[in-house]
Design goal:
Distance between the termini: 74 Å
Strand order of the largest sheet: 2-1-3
Strand content: under 5%
Largest sheet: 3 strands, mixed
Number of strands: 3
Structural class: mainly alpha
Number of helices: 11
Radius of gyration: 22 Å
Oligomer: single chain
Order of helices and strands: EHHEHHHHEHHHHH
């Protein structure tokens, strides 16, 4: 059938999780609690870093930026997911779909670079402790943060503009929880080879480069820590990196599971669950990890609660 004879699709229907009303309401309640806890947890981190003087350091500054990214990611996905669950699916226009893709992609890319900058901060702190305060100045941290948020923008915008100009025809049903690039391209009836190249470029810029920075930083960190003669000193040095390493492992494992590992033979339900891991689960656990494993943040929480009680 010729492309010109097909009806153009300008609206899509997201299926979400199909099932009984009771099942969907249960999921709605679960995601509502997760969303509320995630927003409160990340806002708590941002507030503590802003108001507690002992948290006015580069490491906590980047943690607060990470919390902003987590809020953007989960807010881009979950509110519309509520609508889909309550209505057993939901319609979304092409423009809304591309907009959701943009904010998800921008938040993901920023998170990758923020995690890389946090590893760089740990590298400077452990490998160049005497120069740490002169290297990681407030101005330098702000510049690095702005770079993390703005650097992926032109690459992401170019790829989304080209995606928006594709012709979609035939079925308009997306069996997914949100507008993601893989199921969206599956409905395109025009050639998207250039967009695939753009996706590879995005992967190199937003995933490979930050992950390379992380690997190099921690290679130098490990070599420096191994030179410390005291076991207590080595343990103390590693403890400053443990929370960051856990967050990096969770985030990159989910990203690679969704976008890098071949999807052949994977059920749609598994794909949806994996997508939830980096869009919902990771923003939830990040503030928990930093709160439970960080003595300074726990102390700031206690001080803040003490002032509120008094």
């Amino acid at each position: 059938m010729q492309e010109s004879n097909l009806t153009a699709v300008i609206e899509f229907f997201l299926l979400g999780f199909q099932g009984s009303q009771g099942f969907r309401i249960s999921l709605f309640c679960l995601f509502l609690v997760v969303y509320w806890v995630t927003i409160c947890g990340n806002l708590l981190i941002i507030t503590l870093v802003s108001t507690s003087k002992n948290l006015h350091t580069p490491m906590y500054f980047f943690i607060s930026q990470l919390s902003i990214s987590d809020i953007l990611i989960i807010t881009d996905i979950v509110p519309y997911l509520f609508h889909i669950l309550l209505n057993n699916g939901g319609s979304i226009s092409l423009i809304e779909c591309i907009t959701q893709l943009y904010f998800l992609g921008a938040s993901e890319a920023s998170e990758c670079f923020l995690l890389a900058m946090m590893s760089y901060d740990r590298y400077v702190a452990i490998c160049n402790p005497l120069r740490y305060s002169s290297i990681m100045t407030n101005r330098h941290c702000v510049i690095l943060s702005i770079t993390c948020w703005l650097f992926p923008f032109p690459f992401l915008l170019n790829y989304l503009i080209k995606t928006g100009t594709l012709n979609f025809c035939g079925s308009n049903i997306i069996d997914h929880l949100f507008c993601d690039i893989v199921p969206l391209l599956g409905l395109a009836c025009s050639d998207f080879f250039i967009i695939q190249l753009e996706i590879y470029l995005l992967a190199i810029v937003n995933v490979i480069i930050p992950s390379t920075i992380i690997v190099i930083s921690y290679t130098y960190i490990v070599l420096a820590v191994l030179k410390i003669s005291s076991s207590t000193g080595r343990q103390k040095a590693f403890s400053t990196c443990s929370s960051h390493l856990i967050v990096v492992s969770i985030y990159y494992w989910t990203i690679f599971s969704v976008y890098i590992v071949p999807t052949k033979g994977r059920s749609l339900t598994i794909s949806k669950i994996l997508s939830l891991l980096y869009t919902v689960f990771t923003p939830l656990v990040n503030p928990i990890i930093y709160s439970l494993r960080n003595r300074d943040i726990r102390k700031a929480v206690q001080n803040t609660l003490g002032k509120l009680i008094i």
